[in-house]
Amino acid sequence: MVEPAAEGLVKIRFELDPKDWNGLKSESLWALELHPAEYLIRNSPFYAYGISAEDTVHVNTSMEFSALPVSRSAGATRRIAFF
C-alpha cells in the first residue's frame, strides 16, 4: 500500500508474519517514487527481511502488500536485538 506524504516521499507497507517474534502484521518504510509503481526505499527496515535502504522496489498499487525488489543496493541491513 502506498500512502502519500510531504517532500515527495511515500510510505510503503511490507507484510510481516504475525506469528514471528514481534507479532506485527506489517512495517511501513519511506520511499521515493522513481517511475510509476517503482520506488527507492529511503530508510532501513527493522522487522521486514529481504529489503534494505536504497533498494528499488516495484509496487502493485491495486494490492495492499505487494512490493517486489527490482534492484538491490550495495548495502545490507544488520539488526541487533536485546532481550
Core attributes:
mainly beta, six-stranded antiparallel sheet, globular, 83 residues
Helix count, DSSP H or I runs of 4 or more residues: 0
Main sheet overview: 6 strands, antiparallel
Percent range for β-strand residues: 35-45%
Strand order of the largest sheet: 1-2-3-4-5-6
What distance separates the N and C termini?
A: 31 Å
Radius of gyration: 13 Å
Tally of strands? 6
Give the mean pLDDT: 78
Which structural category fits the helices and strands? Answer: mainly beta
Give the overall silhouette. globular
Oligomer: single chain
Succession of helices and strands: EEEEEE
Please estimate the helix content: under 10%
| The number of domains | 1
Low-confidence parts lasting 5 or more residues at pLDDT below 50?
A: none
Set down the secondary structure blueprint.
Blueprint lengths: L1 E3 L4 E7 L10 E10 L2 E4 L14 E4 L7 E5 L12
Written description of the protein model:
The chain has strands at residues 2-4, 9-15, 26-35, 38-41, 56-59, 67-71. The chain is mainly beta and 83 residues long. A six-stranded antiparallel β-sheet has the order 1-2-3-4-5-6, with no helix packed on it. The chain is globular, with a radius of gyration of 13 Å. It starts with a strand and ends in a 12-residue tail after the last strand.
